Amino acid sequence: MTIHATGLSVVRSGHTILHPTDVEIRPGTRVGLVGASGSGKSTLGHALIDILRAQGQSVSHVPQSPDEALDPLRSMAFHWREAERALNMAPNPARQETLFTALRIEGGDVRKRPWGWSRGMQQRFVIAMALIGTPDLLVMDEPTSALDPVVAADTMDLLDTYLADRATALLLVTHDLGLAARRVTRLMVMEAGQVVEDAPTTQLLSAPETVAARSLCAHRNWLELPC
Amino acid sequence: MIRFLASLTFRAAVVLSGAALATFALLWHAPGDPALAIAMARYDALATTDVIAIVRAEAGLDVGFWPAFLAWVGPLLVGDFGQSSVTGHDVLPEVMTALSYTMPLALAGLLIGLAISLPLAIIATRRPRGWLDRFAVAIASIGAAIPAYWLGLLLILLFAVHLGWLPAMGARTSAHIVLPALTLGLGVAASLTRILRSGILEARDQPFLPAFTRRGVAAGGIERDHVAPHAAIPVITVFGLELAFLLEGAVMVEVIFARPGLGSFLVNAIEARDFPKVQAVVVLAAILFVTVNLLIDLLYRTLDPRIGERDA
Amino acid sequence: MLNVDGISVRGGTRLRLQDVSFTLARGQTLAVVGESGAGKSTLIDAILGLVPCHSGHVTWDAAPVRDCRPALVMQEPRSAFNPRMSLRRSVMEPLVAKRITPDQQHLDQLCHGLEIPPDLLDRRPSEVSIGQAQRVGILRALIAAPPLVLFDEPLSALDAVTQKHSARLIAQMQRAQGFAALIVTHDLGYAAAFADHIAVLRAGRVEELSTAPAFVDAPASAYGRRLRDAAFALGALEHVA
User: Fold this and answer.
1) Intervals of chain C under pLDDT 70
2) CB–CB of C16/C10 below 8 Å?
3) d(C-alpha B78, C-alpha B240), whole Å
4) Is residue B83 in some structural domain?
């Protein structure tokens, strides 16, 4: 199902931190939401989740770090069961096994609490949990910044493979255009609480139109910095 | 786990022997002659110099500090608290009788404290900094500042003198426990409300909670499964301290309401310089403390197993 | 010259660092990369003498490192300052500690080089952006003209654009001041672009020590290759000629 949200906006203590924005994401697509820190990209991501949820659409969220997704006092099994219950789903060991295999967490002891697992495994567990209800949209917040590069790259590859032939769309929220360019086919550039540019990845990289997009493109690569 | 239990036992032993030694030393070096006091208590005007000397020898007060200490501690290790130096009766049964009055009072105080503070803290934290919250904090602060003897007198004036609903002095009927327990419970409620409030607020502020909401977990479920356990941890931590407050408060309240119990037992024993009684009370209190804190440590580990991991 | 000679550091029952050796000359930059827990922070602590080395030794020009008064730039820019003090007071602290009278010209020069507007220093840490706070952190590190500066994940709190901006300023300051820079980072792109040498640390050991271009072309160790490939997969390295 196509994701469609109109008139998203956020005002906090008198300041408009997200100007009215419409978002449309087609099934199975990968979209990057990029911008400098403070540009409002996380705000838009969260507002999108909240409004879609209110509309009864199926959307799930993977926060930046597993510390922001898991209760250290509860076992992994508890988290899983709770997520199933939140979706009004009966426990389904087959589904759990499929997701665990896809994200390579088969070996994890679900009776343990989060800190009994490695951080990479925790993050993949959070992603697996987000996929339980085969959502229409998966929103990921800076998925690589809390992990070691090797682990982060593996995780992104596993997710890519899993999503390849599925209808779940991905919204990748990140400050790192280099990362987004590797992973998505469409880029939305944010600046000062507004989406200022929205174009296919190749087009945006080759011909950025706005100042914000040009700045992000120029600083995309470490080895080719503008003088 | 074995290492943990061993270290707990060691800590308990250190605390208990420290308490025993400190009490004994304090009483030994207290001004005034215990033998004289005992002789006066027993024989009144007949307490001549000879009599005092006999009393001194009988009570084992003529052998110097360390022998006297060892003579007391030795039997203590097998549960013999010795005999009253005034009456000559065994100390332990008398202490137990006193305890049988004090324990129900302390427990009732604790229950009243919980019954008041838990709902108050939950209501207050619905809207932090709202008027209900400010009101609860104000009440708790005032409550913590009011001394038990003043509150006790106030309650006596209101319920016993003015309204005549409840008895004030003694412990003849079960209704006699109401006013002392209320006095104690209000004090406990004041401090518990503040602890519970900050515990709940801190638990609600944890970074992972928004993710649970976005995952679609119902608000009630989040409160029950993710806020309450985290809020319980600091509360349990201070429970050991709360016990000290309870015992101290109970002793005070017993004196105000002329209730038999540990309070009057201790006051009488000190006035009569009946050292074995005083020492028995202190040692029993120390044992109680060590046991409760040990239980708290174990409970703490069940609630938050990370603590055990860190030690290992 | 910094000489790290076969140091091992114990932490509990295991070795946090095991036989780590390298040298670092003035004007040179060494990037230390590796996963968390590999011993990167321990290495900084060992160089600063904050943890004892159980074997080996660290020297600067054949004297204890402490004597050259090295500077440290930390990861969290804002929390590196006292929130109640103006940034100027925090910046001047190393000079006050060493009883040096501040040289206004030197300060102006550094501020200019780090693109710090003069009035910024009169603010408090909470009143500046993270990027600005990080530049002031670098200013504080450089104010006493140290010959050796250690950077602990200097860019990881910044966004992609600010990162590159700060990285360039650090490199410019290094050319002007000529200090030796040891940079602990998990960002291989940064290491490849700005370091002369890259040391790969894993489980307390140096897996490999290569020049930056050689490392990007062909890492010598298997783990180095995995790190490089991950950097490619995450878009941190791209278009390498």
Assistant:
1) 239-241
2) yes
3) 27
4) no
Half-sphere exposure of A206 (CA within 13 A, CB side): 4
Which residues of A sit within 8 Å Cβ distance of C?
Answer: 36-37, 144-145, 148-154, 156-157, 175-183, 215-216, 219-225
Chain B interface disruption, residue of A73, A125, A137, most B CBs within 10 A: A73
Q: In Å, what is the CA distance from C119 to each residue of B152, C85, C96, C106, C138? A: 62, 15, 21, 16, 17
Do B266 and B197 reside in the same domain of the chain? Answer: yes
Name which of C142, C234, B233 is nearest A182 in CA terms: C234
Query: What is the value of ipTM here, to two decimals?
Result: 0.89
Cβ(C9)–Cβ(C46) below 8 Å: yes
Task: Read off the tokens for A195.
Answer: 């989406």
| Predicted pLDDT of residue A33 | 95
The pLDDT of residue B281 is above 70: yes
Q: Where are the alpha helices (DSSP H) in A27-107?
A: 41-54, 76-86, 93-102
**What is the extent of the structural domain holding C217?**
1-70+179-241
Is pLDDT of B308 > 60? no
Backbone angles phi, psi at C56, to 5 degrees: 80, 175
Question: Which secondary-structure segment (H or E) carries C41?
Answer: helix C40-47
CB contact under 8 A, A83 and B305: no
What's residue B312's pLDDT? 35
- Judge: B229–A61 Cβ closer than 8 Å, yes or no: no
| Token code pair at residue B239 | 């429970």
CATH at residue C27: 3.40.50.300
- Shortest CA distance to A172 belongs to which of A50, A69, A33? A33
pLDDT of residue A56: 85
Both structure tokens of B140: 């708790």
Average pLDDT over residues B154-158: 79
> Which of the residues in chain A have pLDDT under 70?
225-227
CA–CA separation, B191 and B129 (whole Å) = 18
- Which helix (H) or strand (E) segment holds residue B69: the answer is helix B65-76
Tell me how far apart the alpha carbons of residues B132 and B192 are, in angstroms, rounded to a whole number: 17
Query: Are residues B215 and A115, on separate chains, in Cβ contact within 8 Å?
Result: no
DSSP 8-class letter at B174: G
User: Quick one: tokens of A182?
Assistant: 């590797």
End-to-end CA gap in chain C: 32
Paired tokens of C134: 């990080």
Helix, coil or strand: residue B36? helix
Domain count, chain C: 1
How far apart are the C-alpha atoms of B133 and B131, rounded to whole Å?
Answer: 5
Domain A3-218 belongs to what topology?
Answer: Rossmann fold (3.40.50)
Gap between the Cα atoms of A112 and A133, Å rounded: 23
Least confident stretch, B36-45, B102-111, B271-280, C149-158: B36-45
Q: Which tokens in the block code for residue B289?
A: 């403390």
Give residue A160's Cα distance to chain centre.
Answer: 12
The tokens describing A36, both together, are: 């400098």
- Of the residues B202, B204, B206, B208, the best mutation for testing chain A's interface (the one with the most A CB atoms within 10 Å of its CB) is B208
Q: How close, in Å, is residue B230 to chain A by CA atoms?
A: 8
User: For position B310, what pLDDT does the model report?
Assistant: 46
Same domain, B244 and B105: yes
Distance from C-alpha of C77 to C-alpha of B17, rounded to nearest angstrom = 50
| Residue C108 counted as domain residue | no
For C201, the 3-state DSSP assignment is strand
Structural domain that includes position B6:
2-76
Give contacts of A82 with chain B, Cβ < 8 Å: 212, 215, 217, 221, 225
- What do you get for the CA distance between the two ends of chain A, in Å? 45
Residue B47's pLDDT is 66
